[in-house]
Specification:
The chain has 423 residues and is α+β, with helices and mostly antiparallel strands. The protein is built from 16 helices and 13 strands. The chain has 4 domains: 116 residues, Alpha-Beta Plaits, CATH 3.30.70; 62 residues, MutS, DNA mismatch repair protein, domain I; 54 residues, 5' to 3' exonuclease, C-terminal subdomain (DNA polymerase, domain 1, Orthogonal Bundle); 153 residues, Dna Ligase, domain 1 (2-Layer Sandwich), CATH 3.30.1490.100. β7, α7 and β8 form a beta-alpha-beta unit. α4 packs antiparallel against α6, α11 crosses α12 and α13 crosses α14.
């Protein structure tokens, strides 16, 4: 659910010269909410909000719900106040991801293999290699919009431009259910029409900093020297990026294979707690989910991070890089408990003691990912001794991994809740 500003003046005919406009950005319209309406047609026309629970936040809202002032990341309780008659539904990520995967595979990849998926509901395409068959990029965009609606009963918006920046800004301003072509020669004119927040990556903090230097729009940004931008941002790299963006320039290429940087899971408690058993249960379930995801995707991880959010909404993280890459909950969970104790200044043996701060949210993630098949794992001395003494030359780690792989098979057949990892 995009909250980027849209400008009515930008949603117009910018011309029909498609020369060099080989980048498409496709963004699904209110994707989660639209998918729920697609499988529950009786909800059509009603305000649908994805996100339930007294302490949850809105993940998506239909356009009918947005008229009430409901936006993503808004507390669900606040959304209920704004729209008491709205239809509130839980997040069903498995369903959303499965439809997303089918759209990307059967529609986007039917045009070209140069597809970069950046989230469950948006992606870029470089269609330069497909123009021999399709002739015009806008013809591809029109076909994608029609096919997505015909086959999946949801709509999407398309931006057609010479680079990723302008294509994304164009799709944002084409919403909902539209397409916007920005000719290459008019890229700078288009972007300089926008407010600062219209440029992806400029958030409230950077906007406020730029405002303090008298920069209130992208047109102001384009008129600012590189030296001034460096002083305003405190970063040569950030200044260069802003200078480029304000002129409609972007040298990033569409990258078909995205390297995953991390996998994580976190959960907000219904009530703040100091009960260590409750927090450890959340961490144990997060480890189980993340480890299963690692194995499904064929990754191992070297770094584990624990995240805590406290009652005052502040948060803290702590990480540890492991000696060997892992993909099992049995290896991740003990590390998470150690990190939890370290963050709160507790004794490592204080397994049942109350925590020293009220916890609102707990979660963990892994990073330093590498392909399982291509990653060499050096056995430890303990492993070698255990292998020598074991009848089947296996180690405890081997047996635990086989056990968790068996859990994967049970869940695949009977559902994720069929069996859980035990401490």
């Amino acid at each position: 659910m995009s909250t980027a500003p849209r400008l009515a003046a930008a949603k117009r005919d910018w011309g029909h010269d498609e020369t060099g406009c080989t980048v498409l950005h496709i963004d699904m319209d209110a994707f989660y909410a639209s998918l729920e309406v697609a499988r529950h047609p009786e909800l059509r026309g009603r305000p649908v909000i994805i996100g339930t629970g007294p302490r949850s936040v809105v993940s998506a809202a239909s356009y009918e719900a947005r008229r009430y002032g409901i936006n993503s990341a808004m507390p669900s309780a606040r959304a209920r106040q704004l729209c008491p008659d709205g239809v509130f539904l839980p997040v069903d990520m498995r369903y959303y991801r499965s439809v997303s995967r089918e759209i990307m595979t059967t529609i986007f990849h039917a045009v070209t293999d140069q597809v970069e998926q950046v989230s469950v509901d948006e992606g870029y395409m470089d269609v330069s290699g497909a123009l021999l068959a399709w002739k015009r990029p806008s013809a591809i965009g029109a076909w994608i919009r029609a096919e997505v609606e015909r086959r999946f009963h949801v709509t999407c918006s398309v931006g057609v431009a010479a680079n990723k920046l302008i294509a994304k800004m164009a799709s944002t301003n084409a919403k909902p259910n539209g397409m916007l072509l920005i000719p290459k020669a008019r890229s700078a004119e288009f972007v300089q029409l926008m407010p600062l927040r219209g440029i992806p990556g400029i958030g409230p903090s950077l906007e406020k900093r730029l405002n303090s230097w008298g920069i209130d729009s992208v047109a102001d940004l384009a008129a600012t020297s590189m030296e001034t931008l460096q002083r305003a941002t405190g970063s040569p790299a950030a200044a260069h990026g802003l200078w480029m963006a304000s002129r409609g320039l972007d040298d990033r290429t569409v990258t078909p294979v995205r390297v995953e940087k991390s996998i994580g899971s976190e959960e907000t408690l219904l009530e703040d707690t100091t009960d260590q058993r409750v927090v450890c249960r959340l961490l144990r379930e997060a480890c189980d989910e993340v480890a299963g995801s690692l194995r499904r995707r064929g990754f191992v991880a070297r770094t584990v991070t624990v995240k805590l959010r406290f009652a005052d909404l502040s948060y803290r993280t702590r990480s540890r890089t492991l000696q060997r890459p892992v993909d099992t909950a049995s290896a991740l969970y003990p590390q998470c408990v150690r990190l939890l104790h370290e963050m709160l200044g507790m004794d490592m043996d204080a397994c049942d003691a109350p925590l020293t701060k009220l916890i609102r949210l707990a979660g963990m993630s892994v990073s330093g990912l590498s392909d399982t098949a291509a990653t060499a794992v050096q056995p430890s001395l303990d492993d070698m001794l255990e292998e020598a003494e074991s009848a089947d030359a296996s180690t405890t780690s081997d047996r635990r991994r086989r056990a968790e792989a068996a859990l994967d098979a049970v869940r695949q057949r009977f559902g994720n809740q069929a069996v859980k990892f035990g401490a």
